[in-house]
């Protein structure tokens, strides 16, 4: 019987994985709680949410967590409720004195019931309290479900730390809110320690009770003891670099080692509805804990067992026996699953076997630091979808906040599906970490743990160039556009001529050009970049880049060079001037390719007909002509007729005359793929490119062309690897 099941499992590895997962989940319930904890409820649209409810709190799948009564047909005055995560959180370790860092993110709505009244009450709170502690009696109204009304001002015997969102200012002796000053409509967020009189507070918008979504991020730094609160509102949906509120508190001196985390809310004479829409939490403390069983009959938050020594010993032996048995069974099943997976994966597990070698190589450089996976998990709120800045062929980019330094960053998470992911990751770290230039994106750090490849960059508040040229972001004025072109030229001059080695970028495009807060150019995404000696200037390599920006010679020679980078610069220059993409397949035939269209207008003396209509003719004509002519010069089909980037700068600075170009686009000496060889799809790429941008990428088709030696697909391979262009091109 066993052998037949094993044979069945080997033939159907998904059954092994399913059985293994079930066993692991079962035995986890027999083991003591984990020290570090992580959970993420992106929504509460299902009944299958494991939470503990107290008082009037309940789950309403169509809405979210309701912390107080939400049935308008009944009396909702003096309602109070709590929702807590059932697992205890290890806040600190008595033997070492170590505290945990933690990060929690939640979104909520507060909605007044009486729309005609300027008053509502009383608010909600995120709180930390001893594990299994009960909800206090008489904790309605201004007590917010945190403390009983008798202890709302005086220090309590039940320790609690909370972040309160108070919607009604109480200035009576029990609930003295320090910022009321006689105005009951004032609302505030405050940090409470053993009292509902906040240790620190700041104001909330008056319209917070109108039912709009508020996002909160609460972080705790165990080193600095800094408890920080970050808030966003509908008019400002992104977390800024500065916290809204903070307070220094040593949680180990206030709370026991094991705590509960959750939310509370209350109404009094005034009412409102309190709804939690999403919640995630992550703590970091890892310690080797002795087995202790929670006391179900004690004082409500005692963490030690009061059972007799004999019973405790028996339980301990039972749990150890079950754990060992489960380990043996899980190990055997895991081995079978691994064998099946190994066969199916074809040996891809080698991808991460040389992490130590990568560490040695990376850490030879200076500047960027190595981050742990959990640091970046906290920084990005578990790579929250709402924080995604863009997504390209090699993975997604997420906005993050480094809690220790309060620095906003962009975290690139290399997709595990990317065939070239590790290669590009190594290339990026080894090259960009050594570059220092005002027009090159700064790499802050890197991480390769938990089978993840992560790159941390400085955050660019104004996103990518293409999001302004083609997306929903604000249109750029002409002086800003000309400055961006200048900055890109300076970046290339540094890469091609001024650094110790020549860096060939190989993927210069508008979505890889980032803009800082002052719209200064920052060239990013060095995943395809290669180092060459200055005297060589080119190298044979796998065909890589983005259709529309690739120099025509690349399709036959496979050589990346300074000249091919200059070609891409020329395309971007024309994009900046014309406000359109390099290839627009739906345009009339004469306008499909940007370079061909503009060159035709140049020959007719009608160059300005290609100018971006979004500029409303508000531009410097001399600069416009200069940028467009330079763009065409850089896009000459013959690389020997293209300028160096230094020559480009001389012309852009009006230090050299314009080039005299032929009136018609010269016939390329290299293969240039016809339009019907490629099908275009809308993708997004770049360091922090916007979700709604649509730079084109080309995936090969099987259509034959008279210009080709056969199907297009083999032309898009280059011998060194069997990666399709759709995988190489972002």
TrEMBL record:
UniProt-recorded name of the protein: non-specific serine/threonine protein kinase
Subunit relationships: Interacts with ABCG40.
Record field: transmembrane: 20-41, 318-339
Cellular compartment(s): Cell membrane
EC top class named in words: transferase
Keyword tags: ATP-binding, Cell membrane, Glycoprotein, Kinase, Lectin, Membrane, Nucleotide-binding, Plant defense, Receptor, Serine/threonine-protein kinase, Signal, Transferase, Transmembrane, Transmembrane helix
PANTHER family: PTHR27007
Species per Swiss-Prot/TrEMBL record: Fagus sylvatica (Beechnut)
Family that this chain belongs to: Belongs to the leguminous lectin family.
């Amino acid at each position: 019987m066993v052998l037949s099941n094993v044979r069945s499992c080997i033939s159907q590895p998904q059954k092994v994985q399913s059985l293994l997962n079930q066993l692991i989940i079962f035995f986890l319930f027999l083991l003591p709680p984990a020290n570090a904890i992580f959970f993420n409820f992106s929504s509460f649209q299902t009944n299958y949410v494991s939470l503990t409810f107290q008082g009037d709190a309940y789950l309403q799948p169509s809405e979210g967590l309701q912390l107080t009564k939400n049935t308008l047909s009944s009396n909702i005055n003096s309602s109070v409720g709590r929702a807590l995560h059932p697992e205890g959180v290890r806040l600190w370790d008595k033997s070492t004195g170590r505290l945990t860092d933690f990060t929690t993110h939640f979104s909520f709505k507060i909605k007044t019931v009486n729309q005609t009244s300027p008053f509502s009450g009383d608010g909600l709170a995120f709180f930390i309290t001893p594990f299994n502690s009960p909800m206090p009696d008489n904790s309605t109204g201004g007590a917010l479900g945190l403390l009983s009304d008798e202890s709302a001002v005086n220090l309590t015997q039940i320790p609690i730390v909370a972040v309160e969102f108070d919607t009604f200012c109480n200035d009576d002796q029990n609930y003295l809110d320090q910022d009321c000053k006689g105005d009951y409509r004032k609302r505030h967020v405050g940090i409470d320690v053993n009292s509902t009189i906040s240790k620190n507070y700041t104001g909330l918008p008056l319209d917070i009770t109108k039912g709009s979504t508020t996002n909160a991020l609460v972080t705790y730094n165990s080193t600095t003891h800094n408890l920080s609160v970050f808030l966003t509102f509908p008019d400002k949906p992104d977390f800024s670099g500065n916290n809204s509120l903070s307070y220094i508190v040593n949680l180990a001196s206030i709370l026991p080692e094991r705590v509960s985390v959750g939310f509370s809310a209350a109404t009094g004479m005034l009412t409102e509805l309190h709804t939690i829409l999403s919640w995630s939490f992550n703590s970091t403390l890892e310690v080797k804990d002795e087995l202790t069983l929670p006391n179900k009959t004690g004082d409500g938050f005692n963490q030690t067992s009061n059972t007799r020594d004999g019973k405790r010993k028996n339980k301990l032996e039972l749990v150890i026996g079950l754990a060992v048995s489960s380990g043996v069974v899980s190990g055997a099943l895991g081995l079978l699953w691994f064998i099946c997976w190994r066969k199916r994966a074809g040996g891809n597990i080698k991808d991460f076997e040389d992490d130590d070698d990568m560490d040695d190589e990376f850490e030879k450089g200076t500047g960027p630091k190595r981050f742990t996976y959990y640091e970046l998990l906290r920084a990005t709120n578990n790579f929250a979808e709402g924080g995604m800045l863009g997504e390209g062929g090699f993975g997604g980019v997420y906005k993050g906040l480094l809690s220790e330094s309060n620095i906003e960053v962009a975290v690139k998470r290399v997709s595990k599906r990317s065939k070239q992911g590790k290669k590009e990751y190594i290339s990026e770290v080894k090259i960009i970490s050594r570059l220092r230039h005002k027009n090159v994106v700064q790499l802050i750090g890197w991480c390769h743990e938990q089978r993840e490849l992560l790159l941390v960059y400085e955050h660019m508040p104004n996103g990518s160039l293409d999001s302004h040229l083609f997306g929903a972001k604000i249109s750029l004025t002409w002086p800003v556009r000309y400055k961006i072109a200048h900055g890109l030229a300076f970046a290339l001059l540094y890469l091609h001529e001024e650094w110790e080695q020549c860096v060939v970028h190989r993927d210069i495009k508008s979505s890889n050009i980032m803009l800082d807060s002052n719209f200064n150019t920052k060239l990013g995404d060095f995943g395809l970049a290669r180092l060459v000696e200055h005297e060589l200037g080119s190298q044979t390599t796998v065909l890589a880049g983005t259709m529309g920006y690739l120099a025509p010679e690349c399709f036959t020679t496979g050589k990346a060079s300074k000249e091919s980078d200059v070609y891409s610069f020329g395309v971007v220059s024309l994009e900046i001037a014309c406000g359109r993409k390099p290839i627009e397949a739906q345009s009339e035939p004469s306008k499909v390719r940007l370079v061909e269209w503009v060159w035709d207008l140049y020959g007719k003396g009608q160059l300005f007909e290609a100018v971006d209509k979004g500029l409303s003719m508000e531009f410097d004509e001399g600069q416009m002509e200069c940028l467009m002519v330079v763009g065409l010069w850089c896009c000459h089909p013959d690389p020997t007729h293209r300028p160096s980037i230094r020559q480009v700068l001389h012309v852009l600075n009006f230090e050299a005359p314009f080039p005299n170009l032929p009136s018609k686009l010269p016939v390329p000496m290299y293969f240039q793929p016809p339009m019907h060889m490629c099908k275009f799809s809308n993708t997004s790429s770049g360091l922090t490119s916007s979700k709604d941008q649509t730079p084109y990428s080309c995936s090969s088709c099987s259509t034959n062309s008279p210009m080709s030696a056969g199907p297009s697909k083999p032309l898009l391979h280059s011998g060194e690897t069997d990666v399709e262009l759709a995988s190489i091109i972002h």
